Protein: NAD(P)-dependent dehydrogenase (Short-subunit alcohol dehydrogenase family)
Organism: Paenibacillus eucommiae
Amino acid sequence: MNNGLVGKTALITGAGSGIGRATALLFAERGARVVVLDVNRESSEDVVDEIRQKGGTGLAVTADVGNEAAMKQAVADTISSFGTLDVLVNNAAVQIMGPLHEFTEAQFDQIISVNMKGVFFGCKYTLPVMMKQKAGVVLSVSSVLGLVGDPDLGIYGATKGAVIALTKSLAVAYGPYGIRVNCVCPGDVNTPLVKQFFDFQPDPEEAKAQVYRHYPLRRIAEPKEVATTLGFLASEDASFISGSHLFVDGGLSAEVY
Ligand SMILES: NC(=O)c1ccc[n+]([C@@H]2O[C@H](COP(=O)([O-])OP(=O)(O)OC[C@H]3O[C@@H](n4cnc5c(N)ncnc54)[C@H](O)[C@@H]3O)[C@@H](O)[C@H]2O)c1
């Protein structure tokens, strides 16, 4: 296994919490210099403190992924601090639940801004750096809901489906530059985002038990299990994997009944 990321620079969006946080800590542990980007300044600084306490190298960047100027600046700050940008992880997303006919235009715009424009801006400013380097890895965190339906998460699922489609097109367009592009499709992961989902249900504990029963492995994922998958895809061990969407869902999407 060559799962080391020694000497690599990784920019991870939404890295102040959940999957992004676990990924930032894992990448730093494996030797990467990690840019911890989040809209929440305090949480990204906490993650960088934790990275440094463990002997790693990190930089906290406060930015809204849906803001083009902020994302352009974040990439520029990464280069001026570390000289390269080898791995981008588009992880930041928001989830707004509810039936589509009750969705407001403002909610629609918010979810599109973070989950889709954020991925667009991350890629737009990172790819030219990687093209010059003739190497790089772009990873995005999609979801099983990019491929299957949930009654209360139609717009969220649509953004995740878009991320899968974009992954395939970018892999085709930028492969000739030595850039690999992949995404992961987690099922439920034990993060604040999922807690929000359970809290939204009339009986959160029963909802949790019901969800666990759907999984062949009879549990949901821990954030670190998605982080290790991203770590694999970022590493040389995945040197011929590009244009893939990889399920990290304990077999959930494999089952019909
Ligand atoms: N948790 C799950 O069950 C699950 C399942 C499938 C996919 N995902 C995906 O995994 C990714 C991470 O989810 P999570 O559960 O760790 O979420 P989370 O809510 O724990 O963390 C998301 C982070 O993104 C940050 N963020 C939100 N809006 C932002 C913005 N505009 N700019 C920059 N940062 C912003 C938040 O501050 C937060 O730190 C998301 O793409 C989500 O859609 C999660």
